[in-house]
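Q: Here's a chain of 167 amino acids. Please give me its 3D structure as tokens.
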Amino acid sequence: MRTLTVVVLLAIAAPASQAQLIPTRPTGQQQQQTPPDPADTIPVPMFREDPPVSPVGAAVRSLILPGWGQSVAGRRVTGAVFIFWEGLTLTMTIKSLHQKEYQKRVGAETATEKGEEVQDWWILLAFNHLLAAAEAYVSTNLWDFPADITAEPLPGGDVGAGFKVYW
């Protein structure tokens, strides 16, 4: 075991000791860079297109109105889901507020519980805004990500999901 430890340490230390040497160049020579030959270079195609809106712009739009940033980025179904949830939570917040005011007027004992329900709906409303902003930011950063998602049978009868990433 001790021999193995020494061998591993020597294997790590040998390249590190050579990496610390500073190469010296002769004093009379200047290193000049020559431009690459155009016939020798391959043009690199642009692999990333700019999104239709910046990630911060999409996040701010979805923070103001959930679903707006998703809609601008071309994710209309996701935007519609966020707008639907916004309408639902806003409607339930207003309904709970009206019920709380009614219970206060009649002197019902459950007015405090209704106040907690109103707080719950306010929290869901705020969470929807934050989640929509985060989703818009991430989806705009990854809007042209080329991933193929597939489900294939695995050995043993299980089903597995995977995706391919092209570099």
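Q: Can you summarize the key feature?
A: The chain has five helices and two strands.
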